[in-house]
Amino acid sequence: MSSTPVRVRFAPSPTGYLHVGGARTALYNFLYAKKTGGEFILRVEDTDLERSTEESMRMQINDLKWLGLKWDEGPHPETHADMGPYGPYRQSHRKEIYLQHAQKLVESGRAYYDFRTDAELDAIKERLIKTGKPPQIEAPETLVPLTEARARLAKGETAAIRFQVNRKGEPEKREYVLNDLVRGEVKFPSDMVGDFVCIRSNGMPVYNFCCAIDDALMKITHVFRAEEHLSNTLRQMMLFEAFGYASPKFGHLSFILGPDKQKLSKRHGATSCNDFRLKGYMPEALCNFILLSGWSSPDGREILSREEQIELFTYERFNSAPAVFDDTKLLWMNSMYLRALPHEELWSRLQPFLKEAGLTIPQGDDVQWRDHALSAFKTSMQTLADAPKLFEALDDSKFSLKPEATEVKAWPDTLKVWAAWKSELEKHAAKYITEPEFAAIQDRVKDQTGVKGKQLFQPIRVAVIGTPQGTELKVLVPLLAKSSLINRVDRCLKA
Ligand code: GLU
Q1: I need a labelling partner for 211 at 20 to 30 A (CA). Which of 73, 140, 298, 349 fits?
Q2: Are the C-beta atoms of 88 and 41 separated by less than 8 Å?
Q3: Lowest mean pLDDT among 133-142, 181-190, 266-275, 445-454
């Protein structure tokens, strides 16, 4: 038995960066396509010309690439040219298709030209509200006959094209039943909506209209999308029916809430993929985290590779209850992924953060040094953005005697300790000093100067990092070349 190949889509409106909620929708659709051997389509819903921008589309495409969610059809990831047999993939390039479809509805009598002005429509809504009825627009008592409507349009009048939910002679109320893959059976009475606009009087098609036509023409089989679209589904079902198109299966995903149980928004801090990228989160960790914000693995496992995610993914495991965005868990997950990265990869991912902080760490080209430094530091890092404050101590150009060192500098024994430290360093033959060698050097400085405790350790600390506070010296000293340590103590002696 051959079944229809799965085709799913992610259909963002390019009105800003990709939000984590959108990223989750994209991830679920992507995983479902991979799991079933289907196709994952990217469709840009940019008919809202006031809010959609070219720049937002570019940003969202970049965010999807960053997350590693590769699409099979849609705008090409680099050139943005259409890629695939069902294009164009940007709604703003499909206007003709929508207008032709609207004409079909008008001709079949399922839609009508509505010449009423905004003021007239507002007055109707006001009257409805006053009589306690929902402000839903219905067709006027007598429709303008099609030939007359066309003649008026030809003369320059404008009219919207409205879908007529309830035609004369049809039962006033029908029930539409959606078998939602997440929410189960959802019943919509047809009078939940009034006659809705398909094409605005300015000629622009409306989201619900475009979306239904595109899902049908692009042969979409399953739609996983945010719960806020549930109320659109009735209109879309009516459109599928009117055109005689097969409806995809729908699954409406539960909301993602902030810790205060309100819908996740900018108020809660970082919410876009770009925010998280800049804060040093890694795409694998973010994907793994959002996977679990609305879905769970059958055995409760939390860290899942992309391959495992694909293998385990089924829509039966979506949670219909809202997910709460847990920053602490995301941070934990990121640190787990960070520690598991091969050092070469981790080092390369740290570069933009080190560069941004103005750090130059040429030692990093030495594989052994790099391994040593990353082993020492990575357990102190939860995000990539934690690197600069750890690596700063290793950049010679950043060394200076900080104001916090003033007191230590003034101690009577400090100069003596610095001189002995320098001479011990000079006696050391190798380029680097190991941790036990450093302990032995400290002991010799103590013996030579007769200084001990705080009076000994603090001056050495200042001679290495310019301040009495910071990462433990036994971690830092082995990562600094002898020449660099000598140079630093020299600068202290001169100060
Ligand atoms: N363009 C819609 C949005 O960005 C998505 C519509 C859909 O998935 O059906 O919210």
Answers
A1: 140
A2: no
A3: 266-275
> Ligand 1: distance of its center to the CA of 229 in Å?
7
Helix (H), strand (E) counts: the chain: 20, 13
Residue 88: asked if its preceding bond is cis (omega within 30°), the reply is yes
Q: What does the alpha-carbon distance between residue 444 and residue 419 come to, in Å, rounded to a whole number?
A: 12
CA dist., res. 455 & res. 413, Å (int): 7
The verdict on 407 and 390 lying in the same domain is no
Per the annotation, the verdict on 263 as an active-site residue is: no
Considering the candidates 266, 355, 431, 454, report the single residue annotated as catalytic. 266
Tell me, what CATH number does 436's domain have?
Answer: 1.10.10.350
- Asked if the structure places residue 466 within a domain, the reply is yes
pLDDT digits (tens, 9 = 90+) for 141-180: 999 999 999 999 999 999 999 999 999 888 888 999 999 9
Which amino acid is it at 472?
E
- Please give the distance, rounded to the nearest whole angstrom, from the Cα atom of residue 223 to the centre of ligand 1: 10
- What is the DSSP code string of 74-111? EE-TTT--EESTT---BGGG-HHHHHHHHHHHHHTTSE
Range of the domain at 187: 95-199
